[in-house]
Amino acid sequence: MRDQLPIDDVLEELLGAVRAHGCAVLQAPPGAGKTTRVPLALLQAGVVKGRIVMLEPRRLATQAAAERLAQQLGEDVGQTVGYRMRGETKVSKQTRIEVVTEGILTRMIQSDPELTGIGAVIFDEFHERSLNADLGLALTLEVREALRPDLVIMVMSATLDAGPVADLVGAPTVTSQGRAYAVEPRWLDRPLRKEDRFDAAAADLVAQAVGETKGGVLVFLPGEGEIRRVQGRLAGRLPSDCSVRPLYGALRFADQRAAIAPITSGRKIVLATSIAETSLTIEDIRVVVDCGRSRRARFDPGSGMSRLVTERVTRAEATQRAGRAGRVAEGVAYKLWAKGEDGALAAFPPAEIEAADLTGLAVELAVWGSDGLPFLTDPPEGALAEARSLLTALGALNGGRITEHGRALARLPLHPRLGHMLVTGGKAAAGLAALLSERDILQGAPADLSFRIKALAGERGGYPVRQGALARVKQEAKRLAKLAPVRAEQTSEIYAAMAYPDRIALRRTGDDPRYVLSGGKGAVMDGADALAGQRLLIVTDTDGNPREAKIRTALVISEASVRDVAGDHINVVQTCSWSKRSGKVLARTQEQLGAVVLSDVAWTDAPKDAVAHAMLDGVRALGFKFSAAADRFRARVELVRAVGPDLPDLSDTALMDSVNDWLLPYLPGVQTTSQWKSHDTLQALRAILTWDQMQRVDTQAPPQFTTPLGRHTPIDYSGDAPEITLRLQEMFGTTRHPTVAGRPLRVTFLSPGQKPIQTTMDVPGFWATSYGDVRKDMRGRYPRHPWPEDPTQADPTLRTKPRK
Q1: Coil, strand, or helix at residue 572?
Q2: Which of 417, 527, 565, 685 is surrounded by the most beta carbons within 10 Å?
């Protein structure tokens, strides 16, 4: 007789929902038994015709779930219950329940949209919101709508907000309360301070938990690095009967199995990443230590790169983790934060589709031929556009449509970058494809990827090798080589450039090892690294920083190799541009690979109009420096414009706004700052006005004043009023004050010695008033010059009296 599980209480309700609606959403907490019971209940109740496919988020969970289901039937895996995952399959003709990793379902649907022979699809642990699960559900819903109305769909989750999922699926929600084993939460007395080291604080809390409790302990840490450091700090601090077992995705599969298996004696301390939050049953766990951190991949469409970020856990994740302590008995959950910090935790983690690299999704959408899939969360437009741009560069898309090459990439269990490398490069590229798809196989090695390539070939390079990772890479390389075509063998850097055409890096000028990538982004390398002095690199991994990514692995690549692999994308570009640094127009002929300039030489016969257009940018940067004549002309126009606004505006702002229109024809021959400063723009300014407008300006605001003697003297328009300066005697006989554009001229009278003696805006008034005093003063000083009592009756003159 099998053990009673909490899910058993709602199985009839769940089956009823499936019979009535053909689909259902099941919400059940950890330990309720949904993974173990639901597939068998559907099979045994006869409500499903055909095979039942159940998705699990990870390989370990897939195998473990299949084994538990088969065990309940008293069979071996591969009979009624089997599994499929990348590189490993255990099914037979008798198999009715297939447990698969999430990506397998997508391949099934793309190969056979009707899902022939499949009667039900179960999405287990859907609250993890992986990209593959979201895509798989969207595809399955469309298949059910268009082709298979009889297809049963079930979504199972522990902590997900079930309402939106139920609305999307069009199904009722069935809720299991789970087993009510109490889990006592224990928080820190105070929040961690900035100076508190995370690893030390985590180790202290684990030691405290082991000392205060009994039973197995499950510790949640963000990644492998933290697991190893905490494990090191726990050495010698735990009782001798404690066995410390790490558990993370990159661990050897056998070691993962060992971490979840029960031990015969003593206590088990499992140091795990989020892999242990769901879908895995770890025996004998009574205590959880939640260190409050989670590591997620974030994709920045602006940089086209992904990076791992460590963030605070969400309330849903904290609840999920704590629940692992109460699956079979009362437990305790230690939290590496203060109780008052709970309120600041986000409710749920972001769906992977919101933050991930969408290149693989874009390929699948193109193969499917539709963007209108019913996603629970729509993919961000920016990230999707960036993914399609990359796929176009790889030849997988043409005008947004999938190519035959793109279909070949979709069939491969690789990121499209690496798939392109494998299909284009052939079997010899399989090792590098496997190497780049796994975590780093070396510890503490420099950025040069060639050290990893040599380690894969069995050469010793003096750096510690992660044996588990190396074994996985070798196994994957063999599998990929079977999928690859036969091609002529190339060098590793050419293979890498095939996968990363947007990451061909050219070193910038300067002492610091900064690079510009062909995709337009910036990158930097550790100055002490041996690659830091190389001119050209092909970058295979960065930290994903959107401002300036740090290069983690790269290969040296020659310019010849760049031309070999990317020659079709190298463009010859001739440019004329203003250089602020040089203070002149630079005309260059460049060979460009995206943002990388492979060669740059002078363009000696650049067209004059191209140089002039570039010089306009220099004018905008330098501003105007008008000659005295040009400034006088502008002032004259402004004066007339005040009474006749149909004239053009020649202010600095207006001229700069229209500089393309009026200055361009007069710039040939001007290419430098010094030439511009000495360039007289008077002719160009005069050309702005029509002939009739120039006539009006010359008439109403002439450049010069004709004196009563017929002599021309320039009018100064630079002040608040137009002004002339001349000898007093030259204005004798003037009875009306001179004007310009309806405004009186300011007249400055000079003595015979050319010294100012009076300024007036009313010449007749001056004759009638102040002139008498001026006459008295000047007669004694300049007796040989005429000083008549009535200047209005005198003739203008510049002569002196004849000597007696």
Answers
A1: strand
A2: 417
Of the candidates 194, 262, 500, the one whose C-alpha atom is nearest the C-alpha of residue 359 is 500
Higher pLDDT pick, 162 / 445: 445
Alpha-carbon span 43 to 46, nearest angstrom: 6
Helix or strand (DSSP H, E) at 747: strand 746-750
Residue 617 pLDDT greater than 90, yes or no: yes
Res 265 pLDDT > 90? no
Using the structure block, give the residue that is written with the tokens 């990230």.
383
Residues in contact with 772: Cβ distance below 8 Å, sequence separation at least 6, in sequence order: none
Backbone angles phi, psi at 276, to 5 degrees: -95, 5
Name the residue ranges covered by the structural domains of the chain: 6-175, 183-354, 412-559, 570-689, 704-793
Q: Residue 633: which H helix or E strand, with range?
A: helix 628-641
- Interior CA angle at 185 toward 182 and 186, to 5°? 145
Buried residues in 261-272 as b, exposed as e (16+ CB within 10 A)? eeeeeebbbbbb
- CATH code of 6-175, in short, is 3.40.50.300
CA distances from residue 804 to 578, 779, 781 in whole angstroms, order as listed: 71, 17, 18
Say which amino acid occupies 363.
V
Q: How far apart are CA 666 and CA 686, in angstroms?
A: 12
Return the CATH fold of 183-354.
Answer: Rossmann fold (3.40.50)
Q: What is the pLDDT of residues 380-413, one digit of tens each?
A: 998 899 899 999 999 999 999 999 999 999 999 8
Taking alpha carbons only, the member of 639, 629, 636, 614 closest to residue 681 is: 629
Task: Report d(CA 391, CA 377) in Å as an integer.
Answer: 22
Rounded to the nearest 5°, which phi and psi values hold at 337? -160, 165
pLDDT band at 86 (very low <50, low <70, confident <90, very high): confident
With beta carbons less than 8 A apart as the criterion, state whether 593 and 504 touch: yes
Classify burial at 111, counting beta carbons within 10 Å of its beta carbon; exposed 0-12, middle 13-18, buried 19 or more: exposed
Residues 578 and 472 sit within 8 Å (Cβ to Cβ)? no
Q: How does DSSP assign 423-458, residue by residue?
A: HHH-GGGHHHHHHHHS--SBSS--SBTHHHHHHHTT
- Round the CA-based radius of gyration of the chain to a whole number and report it: 42
Same fold: 6-175 with 183-354:
yes
* Alpha-carbon distance values, 760 to 1, 519, 686, 716, 744 (Å): 122, 70, 31, 15, 10
What whole-number distance in Å separates Cα of residue 411 and Cα of residue 364?
10
The answer to whether 23 touches 121, Cβ cutoff 8 Å, is no
Quote the tokens at residue 360: 């693989």
- How far apart, in whole angstroms, are the C-alpha atoms of residue 294 and residue 310? 6
Cross-strand pairs, 523: 515, 549
Which pLDDT value is given to residue 1?
A: 39
Q: Which two tokens stand for residue 5?
A: 């599980």
CA 642 – CA 541 distance, rounded (Å): 66
Within 510-575, residue ranges assigned H as helices are 559-566
Query: Pick from 163, 162, 167: which is nearest to 127 by CA?
Result: 162
Instruction: Quote the mean pLDDT of the chain.
Output: 90
Beta bridge partners of 338: 188
Please state, in angstroms and rounded to a whole number, the distance separating the CA atoms of residues 259 and 268: 9
Buried b (16+ CB within 10 A) or exposed e, 295-322: bbebbbbebbbbbeeeeebbbbbbbbbb
Amino acid, res. 60: L
Burial of 753 (0-12, 13-18, 19+ CB in 10 A): exposed
Residue tagged 């001349």 (tokens) = 726
Rounded to 5°, the CA angle 554-558-561 comes to 100
Q: For 123-141, what is the mean pLDDT?
A: 92
In sequence order, what are the residues at sequence separation of 6 or more whose Cβ sits closer than 8 angstroms to the Cβ of residue 527? Answer: 512, 513
Q: State the CB neighbour count (10 A cutoff) for residue 378.
A: 14
